[in-house]
């Protein structure tokens, strides 16, 4: 059995859109669950999504536990050996309180990739395959979140290009989620149930195209 770790924020956790802000989509609805169903019994799909998680920053409002880099190492080591690590982070870094450019957010993802490569977390002590997934851009209308994400609309549209550059520099896989899904109109930055289904299917295709040895 191969294993894939899905490391992300609320859109990996399965946070529902703003009309139900405290709810979570079911196991079979959120994209890692869709991925699990498609890949079948030969794959162990591990969900590690946390609402509010950033790439490498403590959150001065929501807490230090939102720092994706702090938790990554123990997370990786607790689940090893891993065949593949998927990283889909960056949306929360768009919040005005972090004051980051798209390039700086991508550099944070690059730091996570470097951390993974420094750990003997793959099969037989090798480095697992890594895929950077650029989150879909925010909607233009961020509703009541517009103040929190001030200026995020344009920066979010720069992330895919910056992430692809980081992926190429680190020789890891890349996928742009914005090619297949859009952020929900309900709140402007979470994924609707249909988008979770589409994204899970698209990521399954990307995984299967890696060319795993028999």
Automatic annotation (TrEMBL):
It comes from the Bacteria. GO terms for molecular function: hydrolase activity, acting on ester bonds. CDD domains: SGNH_arylesterase_like. Transmembrane segments: none annotated. Residues 6-196 form the SGNH hydrolase-type esterase domain. This is Lysophospholipase L1-like esterase.
